[in-house]
Amino acid sequence: MPSLNMAAICARPPGFLQSSDARDCPNGGGHGGFSQTWRPAEMAEMVECFKKIAQDADCRAVVISGSGKMFSAGIDLVDMASDLLQPQGEDAARISWHLRRLIASYQETFSVIEKCPKPVIAAIHGGCIGAGVDLITACDIRYCAQDAFFQVKEVDIGLAADVGTLQRLPRVIGNQSLVNELAFTARKMMADEALGSGLVSRVFPEKEVMLDAAFALAAEISSKSPVAVQGTKINLLYSRDHSVADSLNYAASWNMSMLQTEDIVKSAQAAMEKKELKNITFSNL
C-alpha cells in the first residue's frame, strides 16, 4: 500500500550528516511509514513516533513525504465509521464525552508535530486531501511538486474539519477570505496558487527534485546549533499565539539561559575562520 514516509535527519560527528530512519516508527524500511489514508491505529503510532523523535538527541530535523501517487488521501472513513457514527455511551452526555476524547486524540496526531522541537519539513506531491492538510499545516516548512493539489475536503463528507486545518491554515496563509472559500467549497488549490498564498514556500517541477531539495534543506538545518534551531522554533510558535510584548518577554527569559552555550563561541569562531557550519561539531541536546 502507498504510504506516508518520515525520515529523521541526524547530525553525527565530525560534522557528518546522515539521512536515517525515524527510529522505532511503525512499518520500518527505508523510512518510518504510515498508510496513505489515516486510520486510528496509525494515528496513535504517529503520536508515539514523534514523541520519540522529540527525545532523540541525534535527530535534528524531519522530512515527511509520500511514496504513492499522492501525499495523503485523508482519513479512512470506512475504518473510522464505527467510532464516529456509532459512538459508545448510554445517553447524550456520555456519547458526547466519548466523542470529545476521540476527537482530542485525533487532534494530537498532528499537534504532536507542532510540539516537536525539531523542524519538520513536508514534501508534498499529488493530492494532499483532508487530514493531509491537517498534517502539513502543523509542519514548519512545506515544499511541493508541480502536480500537487490541496483540498480541505471535510465539508464534502458532512462535517467541519476538527483536527487542525481550520485553526492553523488561517495563520499559515494569512488570508481569511481564501481559507473560507477553500473550507466552504472543498475545491482544489493547485501548486501555483499554494505558492502564491504562502501555503508552500517552493514548488518543484517533479517529486524527485523536490525530495532532493527537502533533504538538502534538512541537512543544512541539521548542521546548525540545535540550541539555536530548536529555540527558534519554540519562540516562533510562542510568538504566533501571543502578543509582541509577551513574546519579547518570553524571548528574554528564554535567552537568559540559552545564551550560556558554547555554540555561540563555535559559530563566531567559524565565521572568523571562514568555515562553513557543516564543518563544525555542535553537541546534541
Automatic annotation (TrEMBL):
GO terms for biological process: fatty acid beta-oxidation. Its main location: other. GO terms for cellular component: mitochondrion; peroxisome. It is found in: Peroxisome. The keyword Acetylation applies. It catalyses: (3E,5Z,8Z,11Z,14Z)-eicosapentaenoyl-CoA = (2E,4E,8Z,11Z,14Z)-eicosapentaenoyl-CoA; (3E,5Z)-octadienoyl-CoA = (2E,4E)-octadienoyl-CoA. It comes from the Eukaryota. Pathway: Lipid metabolism; fatty acid beta-oxidation. Keywords: Acetylation, Fatty acid metabolism, Isomerase, Lipid metabolism, Peroxisome. GO terms for molecular function: delta(3,5)-delta(2,4)-dienoyl-CoA isomerase activity. Gene3D superfamilies: 2-enoyl-CoA Hydratase, Chain A, domain 1, Lyase 2-enoyl-coa Hydratase, Chain A, domain 2. Isomerization of 3-trans,5-cis-dienoyl-CoA to 2-trans,4-trans-dienoyl-CoA. Belongs to the enoyl-CoA hydratase/isomerase family. Homohexamer. This is Delta(3,5)-Delta(2,4)-dienoyl-CoA isomerase, mitochondrial. It comes from Equus caballus (Horse). The lineage of its organism: Eukaryota, Metazoa, Chordata, Craniata, Vertebrata. The gene is ECH1.
